[in-house]
Amino acid sequence: xxxxxxxxxxxxxxxxxxxxxxxxxxxxxxxxxxxxxxxxxxxxxxxxxxxxxxxxxxxxxxxxxxxxxxxxxxxxxxxxxxxxxxxxxxxxxxxxxxxxxxxxxxxxxxxxxxxxxxxxxxxxxxxxxxxxxxxxxxxxxxxxxxxxxxxxxxxxxxxxxxxxxxxxxxxxxxxxxxxxxxxxxxxxxxxxxxxxxxxxxxxxxxxxxxxxxxxxxxxxxxxxxxxxxxxx
Length: 232
Description:
single chain
């Protein structure tokens, strides 16, 4: 596939892990305000920060290969969707954003518009691809970043009974998340993700009460070898 360029679409911008949900994308935002990390001056990036409801778009795709990838002239990745539960990529420059490719079945225009609406002088985009069970749904609760790692937290709920799905069938969900900070991809050595067995809202309520019900799974990917949030 020939990747989109930043000049192709200039639309307005919209808006693991072992299980997720759904045969089609579900986009829901929250009224919760996002925390933007402070800076010592107008240009120096902070070394760490977190956002509990980041700007993001998400797409769900039932396909045999990774639906969003960084084009390096080798074409679309050919590995099995079950070979790795998560894939992560940091988009830290406009030139790198131009190389992002998206399959036809995914929300290409929304992803492209989201990338075009990012100011890479002050922001970074984190793309995380997760293999999920289609009878569940994940909500992005939080993203955290430090000098050498990025962490995402998700909440998991079952899909509504009237939404058709096949038990055990796995699909791809791709989050394209805007970090309100400059993160250098070369400095990041590891990624990790956690999935709570409840929605983001219930996880936060449990944490405030001193305990959290539900199971939690964690994944990591070492590069050296809600009340709200976007849902998929």
